[in-house]
């Protein structure tokens, strides 16, 4: 698909189609979640500027701190394929209501754009969308090191 988002400097708005596609990809990715410790399945999907969607799940570890969240799995897949620009992200929990990205994932995503819209979803119909900037106000970024 083509990257169907509008706007450049300000928060981007995904088309309803793109949003649907991302949420569906995140839900599907959740099926592969490796969660022997928490049993809490999460899926995420990112839409890159190339138009490609990369999806990922959470991957847990016996050393709990080694766990990787679904959002970071999806981003790392995209970045390691050469993607650098992102139009939107969906994250989907096994929960009745939408789940919200953890602090580490907020910081991770901030590296690639404060205006990326994050669609938060769960099992139900309810969704909520916030930008990375809204999720992580006063973010520390590369600009702080100039
Ligand atoms: N988790 C995610 O994958 N993404 C989030 O946004 C929140 C938390 C995972 C990490 C861990 O495998 C499980 O959910 C419980 O914290």
Could you state the CATH homologous superfamily? Cytidine Deaminase, domain 2
CATH class: Alpha Beta
Chemical compounds bound to the protein:
tetrahydrodeoxyuridine
Strand order of the largest sheet: 4-3-5-6-7
Overall body shape: globular
Strand content: 15-25%
Largest sheet: 5 strands, mixed
The structural class is alpha+beta
Number of DSSP strands? 7
Count of alpha/pi helices = 4
Count of individual domains: 1
Report the end-to-end length measured between terminal Cα atoms: 37 Å
The percent range for helix content is: 25-40%
As for the CATH topology, it is Cytidine Deaminase, domain 2
Q: Which series of helices and strands comes N to C?
A: EEHEEHEHEEH
CATH architecture classification name = 3-Layer(aba) Sandwich
Mean pLDDT: 93
- Measured on Cα atoms, how large is the radius of gyration? 14 Å
Question: What descriptive keywords fit this protein?
Answer:
146 residues, alpha+beta, Cytidine Deaminase, domain 2, five-stranded mixed beta sheet, two-stranded antiparallel ribbon, 4 helices, 25% helix, 23% strand, binds tetrahydrodeoxyuridine
What does it look like?
The chain has 146 residues and is of the alpha+beta class. The protein has a single domain, classed as Cytidine Deaminase, domain 2 (3-Layer(aba) Sandwich), CATH 3.40.140. The protein is 25% helix and 23% strand. The chain has four helices and seven strands; from the N terminus they run E-E-H-E-E-H-E-H-E-E-H. The strands form two sheets. The protein has a five-stranded mixed β-sheet. A two-stranded antiparallel sheet has the order 1-2. The radius of gyration is 14 Å and the shape is globular. The structure holds tetrahydrodeoxyuridine. Residues 35, 38, 40, 42, 58, 60, 67, 69-71, 91, 99, 101-102, 105 line the site of tetrahydrodeoxyuridine. Tetrahydrodeoxyuridine binds at residues 35, 38, 40, 42, 58, 60, 67, 69-71, 91, 99, 101-102, 105.
């Amino acid at each position: 698909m083509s990257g169907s988002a509008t706007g450049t400097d300000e928060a981007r708005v995904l088309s309803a189609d793109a949003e649907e596609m991302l949420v569906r990809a995140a839900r599907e990715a959740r099926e592969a979640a490796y969660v022997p410790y928490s049993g809490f399945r999460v899926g995420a999907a990112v839409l890159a500027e190339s138009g490609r969607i990369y999806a990922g799940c959470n991957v847990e570890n016996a050393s709990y701190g080694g766990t990787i969240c679904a959002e970071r799995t999806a981003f790392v897949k995209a970045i390691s394929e050469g993607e650098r620009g992102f139009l939107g992200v969906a994250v989907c929990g096994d929960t009745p209501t939408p789940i919200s990205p953890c602090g580490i994932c907020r910081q991770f995503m901030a590296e690639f754009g404060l205006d990326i819209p994050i669609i938060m979803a769960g099992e139900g119909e309810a969704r909520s969308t916030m930008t990375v900037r809204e999720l992580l106000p006063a973010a520390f970024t590369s600009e702080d090191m100039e």
